[in-house]
Amino acid sequence: MCGIAGIFHTEGLKPVDPDRIRMMCDAIAHRGPDGEGVWTAPGVGLGHRRLSIIDLAGSPQPMASVEQDAVIVFNGEIYNFKALRTELQALGAKFRTDGDTEVILQAWRHWGADCLTRLHGMFAFALYDLRERTLLLARDRLGVKPLFTARLTDGSIIFGSELKALLAHPAFRREIDPLAVEDYLAWGYVPDHRSILKGVEKLAAGHYQLLRHDAPAPVPVQWWDVSFADRAKGNADDLGAHLLYHMRDAVTSRMLADVPLGAFLSGGVDSSSVVALMAEASASPVKTCSIGFDVAAFDETAYADRIAQQFHTQHWKRKVSPDDFSLVDRLGGMFDEPFADASALPTFRVCELAREHVTVALSGDGADEAFAGYRRQTFHHREEQVRAFLPGALRMPVFGALGAVWPKADWAPRPLRAKTTFLSLAANGEDGYARALAVTAPELRDTLYSPDFRRLRGEYRAEQPFVELMRNAPGRSGLDRAQYADLKFYLPGDILTKVDRTSMAVSLEAREPLLDHRLIEFGARLPEKMRVRGTTGKWLVKQTMRRYLPDDVLFRQKMGFVTPIAQWLRGPLAQAARGLASGGSLARTGWFDSARIEALAEAHIAGTADHSRLIWQLLMLRKSLDHLG
């Protein structure tokens, strides 16, 4: 795992200052503390920071091909590189190293951009072809590894693994995009189709861009997609056998490393499944790490302990105390863009703990998106059945009226929290699912904004790109379209951003075996009844893993990485909540109705309402603005 950065001139072959590349790489030194390098040629410069995982001494970057006609900087891992190396050698390719980086170089030389479809792994890389004078920027299928780009006023394009690499370039101008603020308030993160800063783009997952000198930057090309339109045939036993084969292969292929390797273990279905399959494949005890909370209602370490004991892992755990809010200031700089998923705090702490013992950790991310493990997906599946039964002319006025008058009651038992469900049922499937996924509903956002910000936002609403993505999804049903949107929108924007930034902040490589693209493609073909049955999501995964895991782990209510922010904002962070409206970078923007925010903060602190998610969003937005200057 590494960090990359670079500069490419689209207007002539102007020289590139290597010191500027070095500055950009220094800003992301945490991604690669084991080595650094810069390479420049007329019109292009590439920089690299290395975290050594495979071929520890033999694969420095930037790396040139044996023929000296191509140079690459690469962030990620290619898990099938040995098989590709053998195939390329049969075609006459020569190799000087034993790692995966040189395999990409030779794959490009022999297959061009088609080489991307042969790479199994997580990656973002920049490859300069000296024969064609072109720069290939590429990102893996699911977006595990990030890549930011921006065009400067001199016609050059700069790129880097994190936004902070671009911020280090002295000619880069910082201007907030108000539409990104609308996106952030809706979702709790800035999705991949936007950046918090104007002019910055994120290369989309499964896309590449081929840049040429003296030519405008082309639109990125999609080289991979997943379809939910086809259905696999077979009974549960047959499909479960195929599923287990793919899961085993995905896990074992990601256990290759020349450094200590372990796993995150929360005690949930996904991380427990990964650990079980690692233990099956390993001759030595698996190293596992878990994080819990001093607040009993949020603590899952008992389940993690049980799995660790069952598979005889070498297990470390640590508890996050209620005063761990001290990390809040650091998160703004860690993510660059505002990021309000509060599980980033315990995720960072478990990465810290893991880095004390290993350099690579396997995680359980991705199965919920691919196999319908989220509660909102099972709800949406049932809501779609209601929509199919009741015509819109009846459904919309009835459920719309109920949703309008039903009180919002986040504090109440789950069966009484019906407002969101009623409003969702009143809408079509795409709008309803967007509402279920959103952190802050459009009606609430509108009450927060100042008149000036509403003018800046114009007609744009954050839900529009999501609804369009879902509406055009390759699938047969509402569940298909919801899962597709989660894979394309929520997964890279929230989950993978969180894991990448928190792990890289401590120079830890995190690998996601359940995001193996062959496993994802298999999950997308499963019949709906193999994904959802009644209120049980991820049905086939749970049935298949019963040979490894106890039912009370497989079928207990999903908790996730919950953080006690509501208590923090009534206690040690109460003053920070009160100060949001009255001073600091957030208040100076003039984007928000200060009286409205002050009233929400005071109601939360007094305990008469729970506005913790919204206040946390605004607090993290303020921290990000402070970081961006």
Question: How would you describe this structure to a colleague?
Answer:
The chain is an alpha+beta fold and 629 residues long. The chain folds into three domains: 2-222, Aminohydrolase, N-terminal nucleophile (Ntn) domain (Glutamine Phosphoribosylpyrophosphate, subunit 1, domain 1); 236-320 and 328-372 and 483-554, 3-Layer(aba) Sandwich (Rossmann fold); 564-629, no CATH class. It has 28 helices and 17 strands. It has a six-stranded antiparallel beta sheet with strand order 2-3-1-9-8-10. Strands 4-5-6-7-11-12 form a six-stranded antiparallel beta sheet, with helices on one face. Helix 10 (344-355) packs across helix 19 and helix 18 crosses helix 19 (478-504). The longest helix is centred in the last third of the chain and has 27 residues, at 478-504. It is globular. Residues 411-416 have low confidence and may be disordered.
Features:
Glutamine Phosphoribosylpyrophosphate, subunit 1, domain 1, six-stranded antiparallel β-sheet, Rossmann fold, 3 domains, 629 residues
Short description:
The chain is 44% helix and 15% strand. By secondary structure, it is an alpha+beta fold.
Class per helix and strand makeup: alpha+beta
| CATH fourth-tier homologous superfamily of the largest domain | Aminohydrolase, N-terminal nucleophile (Ntn) domain
Residue stretches low in confidence (pLDDT < 50, at least 5 long) are: 411-416
In helices, the fraction of residues equals 40-55%
Strand order of the largest sheet: 2-3-1-9-8-10
CATH architecture of the largest domain: 4-Layer Sandwich
Radius of gyration: 24 Å
The total of beta strands comes to 17
CATH topology of the largest domain: Glutamine Phosphoribosylpyrophosphate, subunit 1, domain 1
* Average pLDDT for all residues: 92
Tally of contiguous helical segments: 28
CATH class of the largest domain: Alpha Beta
Number of self-contained structural domains: 3
